[in-house]
Here is the input.
Amino acid sequence: MELLKRFNDPARTDRYNNKKHHWPQGSITVFAIACCLYTCVRIGYAIEQIFGVNPGAELSAIAIVLAFFQRFSTDAQLDSKIYRTGVRISGIAVGMLMYGTPMIVLSDLIYLALHHFVTAPHFRAWMILIGILFGLCVVINGTIHATHPVVVHYEVTAGNGALPQSAKPYRIVQLSDLHIGAIVGERLIRRIVAETEALHPDLIVFTGDQFNHSYVDECRDEHEVAAILNRLHAKDGKWAVLGNHDPEPDDAALAEFYEEAGISPLDNGCVVLDGFNLVGRTGVVADGDRRVPLQKLLTLADSAKPTVVLDHDPMGIAQAADCGAELVLAGHSHQGQFFPYNFFVGRAFPKGYFHGLARTKNTTSIVSAGAGVFQVPLRVGTDSEIVCVDVKL
Here is the structure.
């Protein structure tokens, strides 16, 4: 049995980790370890003051192992349930660093400001424990929240009156950024499918990053997940484009998954439906060599019908607007996924390209926060989204 499957295997290409612009992982790991040591030493001090034992060294060792495991999990997959459990635990540990460590820093600052005025026994220790408890509550809530996607409704008009108005809006359900893999598996997909089926869509679209790391088998229960997705029904089918985390379009495992799930790929393609053209872009703007120019794809479209573009990367909205597309459905941003990362990511995107509905020239765009999560299994300050778009043609 092959236990370790690395992404530098020539048979698989990991477009995500090969990005030259990706953050320096070594520096992040060093910073995380420093946070681990500080946090665990302070917790050990607090417990010793109140209970007479100091587990700081043991907590530090565990935290450092989890920090290294989180770093390791972005490069390689261990083909076991134990590994998948480790990815979840290490992701939750990262959440504790994000929310627990700042609270301990804050408790230390409060102590420095008030210790001359407060004489309560073990005041500093209790402040530390209250801070870490607050961080723990945030992480637990964020972990649970990530597994309960919400349905977000939008109403848009396409066609500019060129087509007869339908009595009933055409319903598109967009599922973006599922990130099926070590964290997102059968349980969450089952919930997403149930919520989507209840919407009775006319069309279901997957706008990229169906998978977590360019590797279908990371899911381990991919056949069960495909069978669950096969329960989705829409009169005009289920169509998907690829994102930066997905396998290559010619990946055999991807083709098998799509067939089992009843999903039709629409990468660099166009299909003419009854009321509109559906155009699919491949990859992200940075993968320019893999993306057929939209002008070329539109030569396959019916010029008398409005055009809906599926594009994982919202940075493609401007080109779609220049080409006169009526609607663009995108993802990729995750809306930052958790605070405060969402604050910084939101400022990295142009206005209207980060999340939600916007207008660019005569083009309406919707950027989904994604139905799944990547690497850290929590949502804080954002929702996992199932996007429901009612289009008046």
About this structure: The two ends are 54 Å apart (CA to CA). Confidence is low (pLDDT under 50) at residues 1-14, 19-23. The first strand starts at residue 4 and ends at 6.
